[in-house]
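User: Structure with S-adenosylmethionine, tokens only please.
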Amino acid sequence: MQATGIAALLSLWEAACQTVDISDRPVTIVDYGCSQGRNSMIPMRKAVDVMRSRVDASIPIEVVHTDLPSNDFSSLFEALISDPNSYMTGSSDVFPLAIGKSYFAPLLPPGRVHLGWSTWSLQWMSTNAIDAPDHILAGMSRSPAVAAAVAAQQASDWECFLTQRSREMRPGAKFVAGFTARANAETGWEWLLGELWSALADMRRDGLLSEQEQEQVTIPIGLRSLEDIKAPFRQSGSFAELALEHLDLVKVSDPFWPEFEGSGDRLAFARQHADMTRAWSGPLLAGVAPASCEQTAFVDELFSRFERRLSEDPKPHEPYMAAVVLSKKPQ
Ligand SMILES: C[S@@+](CC[C@H](N)C(=O)[O-])C[C@H]1O[C@@H](n2cnc3c(N)ncnc32)[C@H](O)[C@@H]1O
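Assistant:
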């Protein structure tokens, strides 16, 4: 699913790479929220290729991958060597670097960055603003108190992120991002995460956790609307010297659905979705597991029940992604 959304952003990214001012050297490209880097290879390769086509082949390019300190950076550096799609393969004068620090803080010296990229990351809140009593995802709760706390946190995080990025971007720099968002009331996550919450409720019903423990299992993700994303820019047309060049909502197709339609294999379809969901949420869920449960056993049990539920009622999972392009005011 991540790769499908990234493919939808590539034309915006290529246009940003083609038009950004690269008169200063080295060219600095930053990948914010890189995880293990598997999905960064194609966009970073695209950026390197466009830079090479615009100026002479030996222009030095630094590619800075950033994520939280707990991120598995070893796998990222391993992938740079061994992944068949690595942008390092056959490249020269390309210098990969990594920073383990939250992007809600300054990451690089002022005016350093030419191009910024971030996918499937900015929906995570900087902190768990509030536990949701009625959903596993904070941003899908129907509680007015939770909705208000999530909206306030997401608004403040967005302004903080924009302010930090603006400081480190050069005049004329560009930033392209794609992250989970909502189309008014609909998010596209209703089926998948509804079943995850129901699997947790099944565990409570079977006495594996209390009601209070169930409530504490909250994923701190909020889903902004396009209006929320535009909000900081509304008053003056810019925010922190950044202009919102492009904003739209993309419905990302389910990468596993065509195969399921062909094979009818419900178990395989459910396993693919359960594995994908566990990959992005498993570490967080282990961290909020009830104290009475062993963390891995808790996550194993939850995802085994989740997978069973998905196989009983397969549906296409089609989340919305906001596609955003920002540019820093030229000098
Ligand atoms: C779902 S992964 C996306 C990885 C990759 N960009 C992709 O598109 O596949 C989200 C990543 O964002 C990172 N992340 C979340 N909050 C962050 C923060 N405040 N600062 C830096 N990285 C963050 C997570 O650690 C995780 O690696």
